[in-house]
Design a protein that fits this description.
The protein has helices spanning 24-37, 74-81, 103-112, 134-140; strands at residues 12-17, 42-47, 57-59, 65-67, 69-71, 90-93, 116-121, 143-146, 149-150, 157-158, 160-163, 179-182. It is an alpha/beta fold and 212 residues long. The N and C termini lie far apart (53 Å). The structure holds zinc ion. Zinc ion is lined by residues 151, 153-154, 156, 182-183, 185-186.
Length: 212
């Protein structure tokens, strides 16, 4: 085999999705760590929303962590990434549902440079509807891994994130116990008191451990 040149082989977009408590961050960390073992150079980003765990790491339920760069938005991500792009082969992004639609053209740009791009994020909102930009990222990806959680009501495989209680607080950081994974049968689409569908998730809620 001849030497593989960066950019000379096709890149790859992988999406890891599913509801809260389905292990998306854990799977992202697993893939990035395997890439590191394979001597590939890895960089990981997360949105600047989650200060409950390590400021510069992504965390999963199993307490696995990996160093990550916290960025406010896609523009900030690009500002961090492009100066070092020639030294990077694998790019991970956690909590992709908190980035805007410009993550899509960025992912395509990176894949055309021959990069492996791994994107983890929620595919549906509390209302049970597609959660942009994740559905569009899924559409252009090479591979989608859709993880299920376990329905906390009946034990069936769960594809939905149930928000519990009323929408009294704009910021529900670390609000363990306010969310459950639910199956289709047990899921009740979340609508707040004003009748508006709840599209936003609290910061980093995917990483909230269950209450003891
Ligand atoms: Zn259920």
């Amino acid at each position: 085999m001849s030497q593989v040149h960066v950019g000379a082989h096709p890149g790859r977009i992988e999406v890891i999705t599913g509801p809260m408590f389905s292990g998306k961050s854990e799977e992202l960390i697993r893939r990035l760590k395997r890439a590191q073992i394979a001597k590939l150079r890895v960089i990981c980003f997360k949105p600047d929303l989650d200060a409950r765990y390590h400021r510069t790491a992504i965390a999963s339920h199993s307490s696995q962590t990996l160093e990550a760069i916290t960025v406010a938005n896609v523009e900030a991500l690009k500002a961090e990434l492009f100066p070092v792009i020639d030294q990077i082969e694998v790019i991970g992004v956690d909590e992709t549902q908190f980035f805007d639609a410009s993550l899509l053209p960025l992912s395509l740009e990176l894949v055309h440079l021959g990069k492996r791009v791994i994107l983890a994020g929620l595919d549906t909102t509390f209302a049970g509807e597609p959660f942009p930009p994740v559905p569009d990222l899924m559409a252009v990806s090479d591979e989608v891994t859709k993880l299920s959680a376990v329905c906390m009501q009946c034990g069936a495989p769960a594809i939905h994130t149930q928000r519990l209680g009323s929408n009294q607080s704009l910021v529900l950081v670390g609000a363990a116990g306010l969310y459950e994974a639910r199956c289709r049968r047990c899921f009740r689409p979340y609508v707040d008191e004003q009748g508006a569908k709840q599209l936003e998730l609290p910061t980093g809620a995917d990483q909230v451990p269950p209450s003891p």
